[in-house]
Design brief:
The complex is a heterodimer of chains A (389) and B (457). Chain A is mainly alpha-helical. Helix content of chain A is 64%, strand content 1%. Chain A contains 17 helices and 1 strand. By secondary structure, chain B is α/β, with parallel strands linked by helices. Chain B has 3 domains: 253 residues, no CATH class; 68 residues, Ubiquitin-like (UB roll), CATH 3.10.20; 79 residues, no CATH class. The model of chain B has no long low-confidence stretch (mean pLDDT 93). Classes of the chains: A mainly alpha (389), B alpha/beta (457).
């Protein structure tokens, strides 16, 4: 790889102070560090460092998203052809399904990355910062929470909104308090409800005769149980957002995140616990059919699983203390099921539950840290009274 | 037998090049005093180039407290005074005589001396500077009394010297050193040792100390971790601490009346050919130790102290005032093609995104020693991940919150979050594993210094 290195070394002076394009330094740096981990050595503190860096961490999340992306791609195609021919079985016309899915999803992914990264690079350049890797994950999450038929200009608009209003105005990566990918979806949900809800958007170019209602929508309409079987929902053979349908694919990603230690097991576990808690409570006290479904149905319907594994665990917008993560997670699970069952306006409670708890996460942390502070203050008072202000 | 105090969080990084138990006494002709080894000291010189000094002659004093003297470890000639940025004094180099002369500090019996006389003797001989205090890790003000004194009887940092070995034969002097400490403070004197591993009679038979047994991974040897379990520091509290080897130097002063800053120093690290111990004095030049004894690669980093908290020195640099270790590792100024995605079978990592991360789940005795270098392995980024620092910080402290409080220089918040209970060294492991490559030790040090200046100490 010496020629790549030599080439980079040759053009590098152009992007430094006094070079031809000093204003492109962040961009050059992003591409250079993509090709090569820099040769910087420790200058203060510990003399050696762990081999892990932000790029690798974010790459792990993207790898974890791959099963959901691949399944989602295939499912787009399958759902489309299935709506035309309801007799179609899942693996019939495999290549057609896959090809159709790729044609649908590729533009969405490209738009999301191009729009988002352009803004990220622009801001990094403007602030004279390095380009943070966070958007590599966000840029993949956004397509996966979109309906397959979403217009591309809406993807572009939502991405721009999420990056600028959700992240950059607060100071960029690490400073935002709302999950950017969910914000993109919420933006579309409220700004263009017709593209984000109803029975017509969850299957790409659905045949008119086919119902196309998602299990969540069926439950909202008062069904006893969704028309899709539990196992089909678990596998993900149903209409829905691109990456959210398959619990199996998402659980594969979750396993990867937990094995590598990149995702927080505390948050994942507690979201499921919260969902179960609320589901069981409804079973006890509820009166309509939606309250009576087994709690694990909530896991496989809509975006619950995807949210628990990939959205709630975003370290920047989640609670930061370990105790806080439990509270944060449980409340997300509780709120998601609560919103789904009780609120007739929003079929998908997960997105709103996570965004709501994103807002409350700093408050949760505040009280957890405050307890630590109080303990310390109490000790000061007992032992060294006169020294306490 | 007291109960064993167990520490769970932390990590023993096992690096190759541990010192074998062999000692030699090399001829060292160049020594240096480095004011920068002492936190919060502005040196005022008492000598000039060409002056003659004896072992124990004051070389400079602290502008902040004129009574605190820093004395020469050897007799000889002041060879040079090396200055750095803004003409700050970095090194006062002394070339040693072949026959040593000593200042005489008298051999009056310790038993008959008052606290003030003991302090006076320690200050004049320059051995007061071997004692440090928490918070801040500065040399304490002799007019104040600590609530207790901690003697660290083991070191848990990577490649640390084996205290069972380096203390051999120093028992009587150490005991005398303890007796000196008892004159200084009416508070408890804690001797902290490693459960099941410390077996030196020099420590186990000491009188007048409370022996505490600790067990667990690094940073179990850090004063902050130990004190948090024994007698946590509150605002306004002060604790003194001293290394047990230095206690022998103090004890010796009261027997012989001489300043003999003898310290056994280990030369360690993956790049050292023959790792071993050396009998040298504080401030000795390392060139005779490392000459022909390191790997041929001349792109090496020499560190006075351990690889987590030590200071970078040159290959002809000097051992720091509080160090008993010289570590040598490779510089890591190389590029790694697509290093962020490559499997990295040989890289050091606690993260399970590397195969080696899984090996690091094993207890340290089952792990193979590894080689390390100084590569950062990535660029600096925003603080994004959470819950990572907690895994290696065995204190009841919220590390991320404290680090952020230090960055925004909010003194009230730092106090509330427990800044008085920590030192920069406690965050060394956090810094090593940090995905954002933040220089955390420097941030904590800056926070501590800000408060110290604000408090006028």
């Amino acid at each position: 790889m010496k020629f790549v290195r030599d080439f980079l070394d040759k053009i590098k002076p152009n992007f430094e102070k006094g070079g031809k394009f000093p204003w492109l330094h962040s961009t050059f740096d992003a591409f250079e560090t993509f090709a090569f981990v820099p040769k910087t050595t420790t200058s203060s503190g510990a003399h050696f460092r762990d081999a892990i860096d932000m790029k690798r961490t974010m790459t792990m999340v993207i790898l974890a998203l791959m099963p959901a992306l691949l399944f989602g791609t295939y499912n787009i195609g399958f759902q489309h052809f299935h709506s035309i021919n309801p007799e179609l079985s899942f693996f019939e016309g495999f290549w057609d399904n896959l090809l159709y899915g790729i044609i649908k999803i590729l533009p969405i992914v490209v738009v999301s990355y191009v729009v988002g990264l352009s803004i990220e690079f622009g801001f990094a350049q403007w602030r004279k910062h390095e380009v943070n890797e966070g958007f590599l994950v966000t840029g993949m999450l956004i397509p996966l929470v979109m309906p397959p038929d979403v217009p591309l200009w809406q993807v572009a608009l939502a991405t721009a909104f999420a990056v600028v209003i959700g992240k950059e105005v607060f100071g960029g990566t690490g400073m935002n308090f709302l999950n950017p990918a969910l914000l993109a979806r919420a933006f579309l949900f409220f700004a263009f409800p017709s593209s984000m809800s109803g029975d017509n958007v969850w299957i790409a170019q659905k045949a008119d005769a086919f119902s196309g209602a998602t299990p969540l929508a069926e439950m909202m309409m008062g069904a006893e149980l969704p028309s899709t079987s539990f196992w089909d929902m678990f596998l993900g053979i149903m209409p829905g957002s691109i990456g959210e349908t398959s619990a199996v694919a998402i659980l594969l990603g979750a396993a990867f995140l937990l094995i590598t230690g990149v995702g927080s097991w505390r948050i994942m576990l507690s979201v499921f616990m919260g969902g179960a808690l609320m589901g069981l409570t409804f079973n006890l006290f509820g009166s309509n059919p939606y309250t009576q479904i087994p709690f694990y149905y909530h896991y496989v319907m809509g975006g619950f699983m995807f949210g628990a594994v990939f959205m709630a665990t975003d370290p920047v917008t989640a609670a930061q203390t370990n105790k806080g993560k439990w509270i944060y997670g449980i409340l997300i699970g509780v709120m998601a099921v609560l919103i789904r069952v009780v609120n007739p306006a929003y079929p998908e409670g997960m997105m709103l539950a996570i965004l709501l708890l994103n807002v409350f996460a700093p408050l949760i942390d505040y009280y957890i840290v405050d307890a630590n502070i109080r303990k310390r203050m109490k000790r000061w008072k007992i032992k060294g009274g006169q020294n306490v202000q | 037998m007291s109960d064993i105090i167990k520490i769970k969080r932390g990590f023993d990084i096992k690096i190759s090049g541990k010192a074998i138990e062999k000692v030699s006494s090399p001829l060292v002709t160049s020594y240096a005093l480095k004011p920068t080894d002492h936190i919060g000291i502005t040196p005022k010189l008492m000598v000039k180039e060409g002056d003659r000094v004896k072992a124990g002659t004051p070389v400079f004093y602290s502008k902040q407290n004129e009574k605190i003297l820093f004395t020469s470890p050897v007799s000889g000639t002041i060879e040079s005074i090396n200055r750095g940025e803004k003409r700050a004094i970095e090194e006062i180099v002394i070339s040693a005589d072949s026959v040593q002369e000593y200042e005489d500090f008298g051999t009056e019996s310790l038993a008959s001396m008052q606290r003030e006389e003991v302090i006076e003797k320690l200050l004049k001989s320059g051995l007061w500077t071997l004692i440090r205090q928490r918070p801040y890790s500065t040399i304490p003000n002799p007019e104040l009394q600590p609530k207790c004194i901690i003697i660290s009887g083991f070191d848990s940092s990577p490649l640390a010297a084996n205290y069972n070995f380096i203390l051999k034969g120093k028992g009587a002097q150490i005991q005398l050193g303890v007796d000196v400490l008892k004159k200084l403070s009416s508070g408890k004197i804690h001797l902290n040792i490693r459960a099941n591993e410390t077996n030196a009679d020099e420590l186990l038979k000491l009188e007048g100390v409370q022996i505490n047994r600790f067990e667990g991974p690094h940073p179990v040897g850090n004063v902050s971790v130990q004190i948090s379990k024994l007698d946590p520091i509150n605002k306004g509290d002060m604790v003194w601490y001293i290394d047990v080897q230095d206690l022998a130097i103090i004890g010796n002063l009261f027997v012989s009346g001489k300043v003999e800053k003898d310290r056994m120093v280990a030369l360690v690290g993956p790049e050292v050919k023959n790792t071993q111990y050396f009998n040298i004095k504080i401030g000795a030049c390392i060139s005779s130790l490392v000459m022909d004894n390191v790997s041929k690669d001349n792109n090496l980093r020499y560190i006075s102290g351990n690889v987590l908290t030590g200071k970078r020195i040159k290959e002809n640099g000097y051992v720091g005032a509080y160090d008993n270790l010289v570590s040598v590792i490779k510089e890591g100024d190389y590029y790694q093609f697509l290093g962020w995605i490559a499997p990295g079978f040989k890289k050091f990592s606690l993260s399970r995104t590397f195969p080696t991360g899984f090996l690091n789940l094993l207890p340290s005795k089952f792990r193979k020693p590894i080689k390390i270098d100084t590569n950062m392995h990535g660029g600096k980024r925003a603080l994004v991940l959470t819950g990572e620092y907690e895994k290696v910080l065995p204190l009841d402290i919220y590390p991320m919150q404290l680090i952020k409080a230090c960055i925004i220089e909010d003194i009230d918040l730092m106090e509330q979050l427990g800044i008085y209970e920590v030192d920069a060294e406690d965050f060394a492991l956090c810094e090593v594993i940090d995905v954002s490559k933040t220089d955390i030790q420097q941030i904590i040090r800056n926070g501590l210094e800000l408060i110290r200046k604000e408090m006028g100490e």
